[in-house]
Structures are given as structure tokens and as C-alpha cells.
Amino acid sequence: MNVPTRRLATAVVGFSPLQCRLASSSVRQAVKTPPAKPSSPTPSSRVTRSYKPFVSPSYNSTQKPNISSSPPPPPPPSHGPKADTLLDIWRRAWLPLTGASILAGFLGFYILGTTVATIKSSPCSSSAPCEHATPTGRPPALSGDNAEQFDKELNLPEWWMGITKLRKKLAVHAKGTVLELAMGSGRNLEYYNWEPLSTAVEAARTGNIPPPKIPQGITSFTGLDISVDMLDVSRQRLAKSVPPMAASAPIVKASSMADHTGGQLSFLDGHVRLVNSDAHHPLPPPTHTEKYDTIIQTFGLCSVSDPVAVLSNLATVVRPGTGRIILLEHGKGYYGLVNGLLDKNAGKHFAKYGCWWNRDIEAIVEDAVSATPGLEVVKIERPNITQMGTLVWVELKMATKEKTA
Q1: How far lies 174's CA from each of 44, 57, 159, 168, 293, in Å?
Q2: In 3D, which of 360, 355, 335 has the Cα closest to residue 345?
């Protein structure tokens, strides 16, 4: 027994043995069991919301926050989409606006030019009495040196009106044996394909005649006009456009008609000819074939007294079936305003240029088809919209004998 137990046993005198044993056991348990630690107070059942600091939309998580500075203010409220500025509108619409401006400029320039030309009174205010005046084909104002000057003055107007481009397109259709009627100063000559002509001339000289077929170019050419002065300008152009012409001397045939037409210049063994004649008269046949493969005329129906008779005349010399008559003409357009201006100035224009620019080309073609058995329309179109329908492209052909029969 240890000391504390002994002292406790000595103090409990008069207790029964059982009570002593119980007391001794309690003491030992008290010695072994350490005193309990005071328990922590029970946490309260009240739940509080955790603090979340304000984060600006421009906050970058990689940057260290500045504790000392205050958070930035919230962005101002939005007031809807931002209105377009003039610069924004221009960036979106500059292309269509530019195109519309160019088109309006062309139309305005054409109408203005036609209006200015009608300021002075003209001898004919409509097509009634003057339309039946006999055209001279080429007026005196375009004779002599004026013919060459007139040709030069056409360069700029034909370019901006799109006529130069149409001449190039028309020249592609000139194939085989070609007749150009009312050729004037020869403004189409430089656009033709003359390469097959050199081959044809060489073949004729050597006797090696190729098999008959229509090549992609001209093998022989006949140009016809009522003005000798215009044909002289054409002759100079031919010398520059056709390579074999430089070393070829012309064969001149004098006029045999009372109106001093019928003269002829022949080059390269008859493969190139310039004929001074009236389109109403019988047309010269080709030199080496019976019919022409292609007949070309640019702005000729306006300067003849009977355009229907001229078209019927062309139908007699074009090859049936494969041959083509191709016309580029000017006349009445789409709009009454433009047609009225053309009518008002028609007499003055005829007096200066020998041309009735207000004729209805489609109506003339329809009348010619009705009056000429076998003549058919292949195509009629108005190719240049900026001229408001005043330019007309026409393609005609003659049916074969089997079809006409």
C-alpha cells in the first residue's frame, strides 16, 4: 500500500471492511483518472454570409490587387446601340454609290448634250416632211480635207459612248469574203483579222487553192461608199492595217455612171477593193466567189433614202444559210424624252451629217423582212444601256433555197 492509501485507511476508523474496500477502490480510481478539461462552448446555430469582394470587369487575375486603393466605380448604364456616323455609312455604301454616280453622269451627259444641240431652231421639228428628203449620203461639209478631220473628231465621242468597243466586237464576225457597206473613213479596218488574207493571196499566186471553208478572218474584202473623199481616207487606213497592201499598186477603174459613182480601186489581185457606189444600186459581187460570207454596215441606214430597199439589196448578195448581215445602227431609243429631243433636232443633224438619227431601226428591219422572201432575223439587241437604247445591233441571214421553196 502506498502512503496516501495508508493515511486514508488510518483515518477511516469505525468503517466496516466492505466500506473500507469501496472507499479504497474510489481513491485508486480518482488517482488514475486525470481531471477532465473544460469543454469548449457549443457553437451557435446562426449562419452568417461569407464576404465576397467586388471585382471590376477589367480586373486581371494575374495582377496583384492594390489593397490600399479603392475598387473602381461600376460602368455607366448602357443607352442602346451606338448611332452610325457618316464615315461608317460611307464605308458600307461607297461602291454602289460610286457606280450609281458614274451611271448617272453618263446619262446626264448624254441628255445634256442632246438638249444643248436643240437650243437653236432646226429646219424640221419632226420627221414628217423632212424625213422624205433624199439623203445625199455624205454632205458637202464632209468632203475634201474635212473628211479626214471629221474622222479624227469621232475618236473621243465614240470611245466614251462605247462605240469603239462595239466596233471591235463587230469586227470579230467579219469572216471569209466580206462586204462593208457605207464604210466611210474605214473606222472598222484596224480591228479586222487580216491574217487569212495574206494566206489567200499567196495561195492564189501559187495556184494552191485551199479547200472551201469560212476561216476566222477575212480572205477578201470589198468596201463601198458614196463619197470618194471618205474612200480616200479608208485607202490610207488599209495601207496601215493590211500588211500585203504596202507593196501593192492599185488598179484604178474609172466611173461609168452618170452620177460619177462606180469608180473602183483594186489591190492584191482583186482580194481588196474600194468601190465608189450608191447602196441603192446593184452591188458588186465578190471577185473569187458568188456570194459574200459576211456583210458589215455601221451607221448606214440613217443616211439612205430608202433603208428597206437597201436591206433587200444586201439580201441578194449574201450567202444563203451560213452568210450573215451584221448592222450596228443608231435611232430611236427607250424613252420618249430622248426620242423627242432626237426628233426636234433631226433636220439640223441631217443638214450637217446627212444622217437621220431618229429612225426606228427595229421597224425598218421588220419591214425589210416582210418585203424580202427568205430574209430572217437572227438577233436584234440594244447593247449599250448608257445610250438609252439608241444603239441597235442587228443580225440577219438568208434562208436556203430548200427552206424558201
Answers
A1: 109, 75, 21, 10, 8
A2: 355
CA distance 221 to 138: 22
0.90 exceeded by pTM? no
Report the alpha-carbon distance of residue 255 to residue 285 in Å, rounded: 17
One-letter amino acid identity for 281?
H
Domain boundaries along the sequence of the chain: 107-404
In sequence order, which residues have a C-beta less than 8 Å from that of residue 198 and are 6 or more positions away? Answer: 243, 244
Find out whether 322 and 376 touch, Cβ atoms under 8 Å.
no
Reading the block at residue 174, the C-alpha cell is 467579219
User: What is the chain's alpha carbon radius of gyration, rounded to the nearest angstrom?
Assistant: 52
Classify domain 107-404 at the CATH topology level. Rossmann fold (3.40.50)
Per-residue pLDDT of the chain (405 residues; tens, 9 = 90+): 444 444 444 444 444 544 545 445 554 554 445 555 555 555 444 544 555 555 555 445 555 555 555 666 766 665 656 677 877 777 777 778 787 888 777 667 666 655 554 444 344 444 444 555 566 567 666 777 777 887 888 888 898 889 999 999 999 999 999 999 999 899 999 999 999 988 888 777 777 766 567 778 999 999 999 988 889 889 989 888 887 776 666 666 665 444 455 688 888 888 999 999 999 999 999 988 899 999 999 999 999 999 999 999 999 999 999 999 999 999 999 888 889 999 999 988 888 888 899 999 999 999 999 999 999 999 999 998 888 889 999 999 999 876 665
- State the DSSP string of 256-280: -STTS---EEEETTTTEEEEE--TT
- Nearest-CA neighbor of 267 among 169, 168, 367, 198? 198
Supply 311's cell numbers.
436591206
Strand (E) or helix (H) holding 237: helix 228-241
Q: Are strands 272-276 and 391-398 parallel, antiparallel or unpaired?
A: unpaired
Let me know if 250 is exposed, middle or buried by CB neighbors in 10 A (0-12, 13-18, 19+).
middle
Contacts 24+ apart (CB under 8 A), 203-207: 204/269, 204/271, 204/288, 205/269
